[in-house]
Specification:
It is a single chain. The relative contact order is 0.12. The strands form six sheets. Strands 5-4-8-1-9-10-2-11 form an eight-stranded mixed sheet, with helices on both faces. Strands 17-18-21-26-23-24 form a six-stranded antiparallel sheet, with no helix packed on it. A five-stranded antiparallel sheet has the order 19-20-27-22-25, with no helix packed on it. The chain has three domains: about 25-365, Alkaline Phosphatase, subunit A; about 370-450, Arylsulfatase, C-terminal domain (2-Layer Sandwich), CATH 3.30.1120.10; about 465-585, Galactose-binding domain-like (Jelly Rolls, Sandwich). Strand 17 and strand 18 (about 470-475) form a beta hairpin. Helix content is about 25%, strand content about 25%. It contains 13 helices and 27 strands. It is α+β, with helices and mostly antiparallel strands. The two termini are about 50 Å apart. The protein has helices at about 1-20, 50-60, 75-85, 100-105, 110-115, 170-185, 210, 220-245, 300, 325-335, 350-355, 410-425, 440-450, and strands at about 25-35, 60-65, 65-70, 120-125, 140, 150-155, 160-165, 190-200, 255-260, 305-310, 315-320, 325, 365-370, 375-380, 380-385, 390-395, 465-470, 470-475, 475-480, 485-490, 495-505, 510-515, 520-530, 540-545, 550-555, 565-570, 575-585.
C-alpha cells in the first residue's frame, strides 16, 4: 500500500513538473468598445488623457500605428476578431445580421481550449445570448458589462459557480479586471486564454465619480465621463499585468489590446446630459483621423492597437505596416502551436514581422465591407466606396482623408477597385455593397468627406431628456420618488410611455411589474436586433385592476433573439413602478 502511495506521489509530482514546464504562452486579448484612436496616451495626441499602465504596456511591446478593426460596428468586428475570418464570409455584416453563420464558425477560444488551454470570457459579448458563451469555447464566463445582473459561471474572485444571473458587486470594468486577475492566479501553472471585452467608453457613460474626479477642470462632461471609463480600463490593465508579474508570467504571455471601432462623435460632439442621451457622443476622440463609428473612413475603424510579449517581441517599437484584428487568431495559433488548415484563417501571423525576421508587410492589402460601404488599403493607398461615391487617398501624406485623388490617379483607383471587387465576390452575399446608402450615412459622408458641414442641432433639437434607472419618458416625464419610478403623462389619456434602449436582454424575456396605475390595459412592446420599428406582433398586454394597492404583473415576452429596446405603456394617468424588471426567462 505504501509503495502504491509513493508511486502515485511520484506520478503526481512528474505531472506537476510537466504542467509547469509547458512552454506554450498564455494569450490575453483586451478589447475596448467605441474607443477612438486618439485616446491612447502613448500616441501623445490628447493632453487630458491619463493611461500610464497602457503606456507601459506599449513601451514593453509594439504600438501598431496602422492597426485596424474589421468593421466600424460592434457585432461584425467581434465576429471577425474571435474567428480570425472576415465576418462577411459568414454573413455577419452588421449589428442586425443573423448569428447563424457565426454559430457555425470555430472560434479562437475553441481552438485553444481543445489544445488544453483554460479559456475565459469577461465583459461584453454581443454575439447572441450570454448564456451560450460556453458553446463558443469559453470554459469560464463573467459577462458583466453594466450595473445589472449578468450571466456568469465564475465569481469575482475566480471561483466556479452554476451558470446564471450574478448581481453586480463592483463597477463593471473593475469587476471584469479583478475576475480576470483571479483567473490568472488560478491558472498560473498552465496555459490560459483570456478575452477581456470591456464595454467602455461605449455609452451609457457610467464612470463612478472617483474616476471622473481624476479629470478636473473645464471640459465637456461627456469627455470627463469617457476619460473616467478609460482610467478604469487603464487600472484594469495595470492589475492584469501586475498579476502576471507576481506569478512570473510576464515573459510567458502574449497580450493584444485593441479597440472594436472608432468613437461615435455624432458629428458635432454635443455635450448632452449623460442620462438623457444614451446614443450620443461617447466622449472619446478620433483625431487626427477623419470620420467616426459607422464609417469605413479612418476614424471608423483605425483603432488603438498594442501587442506585447516581453522577451519574445522586442519592446519600444512603433510598427508602421497595416495590421488587422484578424491577425490576432493567426498569430495566437502560431504562438501556441495549434494546427490550423491552410486558408482557414484570413489574418497573418505577425510574430516574424514584429521580431524583425521579416521586413515585408504582413498583408499585400487589407479589405473591408460594411453595409453600403467598402474599402481597400494597399500600402499607403486607400480606396473608399460609399454607395456610388468613390474616394482615393494617399494616407502617407493625407491620413485625415481630406483630399480625394480619384480623378488625379484614375489608374490607381481602377486597380484598387478591381482588387476590392474580386475580394468582395468571395463574401456571403457577394458584392461591394449590401444595399443603398442610408440617409444618415450619406449625411456623414457629406460632412466628413465632401466638406459640406452639417448644421449643428438647435437647442430645441438637442436631446435634453432625463432618465431614471435607464428609463426615459415619451409624451410625459419620469421622476424618482425614493426609489419608485413615477411616470406622468402630458395628457390624462394614453399616448405617453416609458422607454429603455440598448438593453441586450436574451429572449425570451421574463417581465415583472410592481405598479400602481389607473385601471385598464397596458402594453409592453419590444424590438430585437434587425427590427427597424416596433412590430405589431411584438407586444404583450397586461391588465391593471381598480385598486389603490400595489399590483404585481408577471409575463413573458416571446422574443427569440436579444431584446434591444423596450416600451411600457400604462392605461392612463400617473403610473408608479416599484419594480420594472426584465430578464432572460431561462435563467
Amino acid at each position: 500500500m505504501e509503495s502504491l502511495l509513493l508511486l502515485l506521489c511520484v506520478i503526481g509530482a512528474l505531472c506537476g513538473e510537466i504542467r509547469a514546464a509547458d512552454p506554450r504562452p498564455n494569450v490575453i486579448l483586451i478589447y475596448t468598445d467605441d474607443h477612438g484612436y486618439s485616446d491612447l496616451g502613448v500616441h501623445g495626441l490628447q493632453s487630458d488623457l491619463k493611461t500610464p499602465h497602457l503606456d507601459a504596456l506599449a513601451r514593453s511591446g509594439v504600438v501598431a500605428k496602422n492597426g485596424y478593426s474589421t468593421a466600424p460596428q460592434c457585432v461584425p468586428s467581434r465576429g471577425g476578431l474571435l474567428t480570425g475570418r472576415f465576418q462577411g464570409r459568414f454573413n455577419l455584416d452588421n449589428n442586425g445580421s443573423a448569428l447563424d453563420g457565426f454559430n457555425q464558425q470555430t472560434t479562437l477560444a475553441e481552438r485553444l481550449r481543445e489544445a488544453g488551454y483554460a479559456t475565459a470570457h469577461f465583459g461584453k459579448w454581443h454575439l447572441g445570448p450570454t448564456t451560450e458563451i460556453p458553446a463558443h469555447g469559453f470554459q469560464h464566463v463573467f459577462s458583466q458589462n453594466a450595473q445589472r445582473p449578468f450571466s456568469a459561471n465564475l465569481t469575482l474572485d475566480g471561483k466556479d459557480r452554476p451558470m446564471g444571473d450574478l448581481p453586480p458587486e463592483e463597477y463593471h470594468i473593475d469587476a471584469c479586471s479583478k475576475s480576470a486577475a483571479a483567473i490568472i492566479a488560478r491558472y498560473h501553472d498552465r496555459p490560459f486564454f483570456l478575452y477581456v471585452a470591456l464595454r467602455a467608453p461605449h455609452t451609457p457613460l457610467d464612470a463612478p465619480q472617483p474616476y471622473k474626479d481624476r479629470f478636473p477642470g473645464e471640459m465637456p462632461e461627456r469627455r470627463r465621463a469617457a476619460l473616467g471609463m478609460l482610467a478604469a480600463i487603464d487600472d484594469g490593465v495595470g492589475l492584469i499585468t501586475e498579476t502576471l508579474k507576481q506569478h512570473g508570467l510576464t515573459e510567458k504571455t502574449l497580450i493584444f489590446f485593441i479597440g472594436d471601432n472608432g468613437a461615435p462623435l455624432k458629428i458635432h460632439k454635443i455635450d448632452s446630459p449623460l442620462e438623457g442621451d444614451a446614443g450620443g457622443w461617447d466622449g472619446s476622440l478620433n483625431d487626427p483621423l477623419n470620420g467616426e463609428k459607422g464609417m469605413l473612413a479612418e476614424g471608423g475603424m483605425h483603432v488603438p492597437f498594442l501587442i506585447a510579449w516581453p522577451g519574445t517581441i522586442p519592446g519600444g517599437q512603433v510598427y508602421e505596416h497595416p495590421v488587422s484584428a484578424l491577425d490576432v487568431a493567426a498569430t495566437a495559433v502560431e504562438a501556441t502551436k495549434v494546427e490550423v488548415k491552410s486558408g482557414e484563417l484570413d489574418g497573418s501571423n505577425l510574430l516574424p514581422h514584429l521580431k524583425g525576421e521579416v521586413k515585408e508587410a504582413p498583408h499585400e492589402a487589407l479589405f473591408w465591407r460594411w453595409m453600403a460601404q467598402s474599402a481597400v488599403r494597399q500600402g499607403n493607398w486607400k480606396l473608399l466606396r460609399g454607395g456610388d461615391r468613390e474616394y482615393l487617398y494617399d494616407l502617407a501624406t493625407d491620413p485625415g482623408e481630406k483630399h480625394n485623388l480619384a480623378s488625379d490617379h484614375p489608374d490607381k483607383a481602377t486597380q484598387l477597385r478591381e482588387k476590392l471587387t474580386a475580394w468582395s465576390a468571395e463574401l456571403d452575399p457577394p458584392g461591394l455593397a449590401l444595399g443603398p446608402m442610408a440617409p444618415n450615412w450619406n449625411a456623414y459622408f457629406d460632412h466628413y468627406l465632401e466638406g459640406k458641414t452639417a448644421a449643428a442641432p438647435t437647442a430645441k433639437e438637442t436631446p435634453v431628456s432625463t432618465a431614471v434607472k435607464g428609463w426615459e419618458a415619451r409624451g410625459g416625464s419620469v421622476t424618482d420618488d425614493k426609489g419608485v419610478i413615477v411616470f406622468t403623462p402630458e395628457k390624462k389619456g394614453k399616448g405617453g410611455f416609458l422607454t429603455k434602449t440598448r438593453t441586450q436582454i436574451a429572449g425570451p424575456v421574463q417581465v415583472t411589474l410592481e405598479l400602481k396605475a389607473a385601471a385598464g390595459t397596458g402594453t409592453v412592446a419590444w424590438r430585437v436586433e434587425g427590427d427597424k420599428d416596433f412590430l405589431p406582433a411584438n407586444r404583450v398586454t397586461f391588465t391593471v385592476a381598480d385598486s389603490d394597492d400595489w399590483q404585481v404583473r408577471e409575463f413573458v415576452l416571446p422574443a427569440s433573439s436579444p431584446v434591444i429596446h423596450l416600451r411600457v405603456q400604462t392605461p392612463g394617468g400617473e403610473a408608479r413602478f416599484r419594480k420594472l424588471q426584465f430578464k432572460p426567462s431561462d435563467r
